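Suppose you are handed only these lines of text.
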Amino acid sequence: MAHIDYPASYYAASANKAPARPRLQEAVETDVCIIGAGYTGLSTALSLLEQGYRVVVLEAAGVGFGASGRNGGQIVNSYSRDIDTIERTAGAHETALIGAMAFEGARIIRERIRQYDIDCDLKDGGIFAALSTKQMRHLEGQKALWERYGYQHLEMLDGQDIRSEVASDRYVGGMLDRQGGHIHPLNLALGEALAVEHLGGRIFEQSPAIKIERGQRPMVRTPEGQVSARFVVVAGNAYLGNLVPELAAKSMPCGTQVIATEPLAAEIASSLLPHDYCVEDCNYLLDYYRLSADRRLIYGGGVVYGARDPADVISIIRPKMLETFPQLREAKIEFAWTGNFLLTLSRLPQVGRLGDNIYYSQGCSGHGVTYTHLAGRIIAEAIKGQAERFDAFASLRHYPFPGGQRFGAAISALGALYYSLRDRLGF
Ligand SMILES: Cc1cc2nc3c(=O)[nH]c(=O)nc-3n(C[C@H](O)[C@H](O)[C@H](O)COP(=O)(O)OP(=O)(O)OC[C@H]3O[C@@H](n4cnc5c(N)ncnc54)[C@H](O)[C@@H]3O)c2cc1C
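From them, the structure of the protein bound to flavin-adenine dinucleotide can be written out as follows.
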């Protein structure tokens, strides 16, 4: 079987040392078998191990190989679609529960970093940057909404304030979330994997689940081994392929691209982002950026529906970076990579059970660093028999993409083009 390496990203190049982990080459019995060692799988594993369950994690490549080891590193509160969408589409009880959970994922990340002493360059503070007065009004509405759900860490920034936080002329204002922030995403995943092993969990790498045999005691097969468990958790997200066909029909893998500059001189880095906050703009197809611990600008944006890898990431993302920061014209781009997130039609997570012993959570549609950490906790609660919070998410309705798998990517791209045109024209 071919060995799958990490893509050549800045994160892979600056990853903390990790132990060599075996392939699964035996028959194993456990309480819970988790498929996928991204944040969803690792967070579920940690929550279960903390409750005394025996856990085996199967990873097709290496820990954090997927979106969790390649993302923008931005800790963004709430969900890809905000609580007001949930208010419009879910029942009152479910909305209250999901609203109350909207800020828990970021707390879990900070708890884990502290509790397991994870070295992943955590920085506090994230800015939502508005490119138009319409987006500014949207942010004011978002602040009122989050405050209604008890969250009090937001601060509006006017045109002058944002200019003193972000050295760009693009923005009319913004909103600072003091409990947002950023991390080295792969090192967070690697640190969580070490914590899983410290608590007695077993992680097998280069061990793809190729079949789930459903039944009273499901069996997960890999090319060279098998795991028999009381419960299975499917956490393969955009990299799952067709392992569970029921899930594939209602979600679509999408690629997004990131570049990293060379390390910037200290005075240039601190002139761009003086408080080292991360930033994302309010466009439908948004740009997101932050400084790394060694003062590179890490800049992401762009979406490829259907997750084909673009030939030249730099030619797509560098112009976006220069539109925001023309002062970086001379900065060398040292890394460029792409990663897949999983889109659902509603842009809300797809959560549920297959039978009564296979659980899944996927499809956070672009903002998943915080939600996936929450997902791990609520899946573990459900396995333990306290499913109220899990069931609130499971109640969210999901629909197949119009046009099915074949035409869905083209139709979604057209939809995105429409929204990005509206953003560009300031509608
Ligand atoms: C480039 C990029 C930038 C992003 N930036 C941000 C951001 O700044 N902030 C934010 O909130 N969100 C961001 N996201 C989204 C966020 O990273 C994801 O929502 C989150 O990491 C998903 O975690 P996950 O564990 O569900 O999936 P993944 O991290 O993709 O993990 C799934 C894992 O399952 C494994 N797997 C799949 N199938 C199998 C199988 N059959 N057997 C065994 N293993 C399997 C894969 O190899 C993979 O390691 C970004 C995503 C991308 C791609």
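What can we learn from it? The mean pLDDT is 94. The two ends are 51 Å apart (CA to CA).
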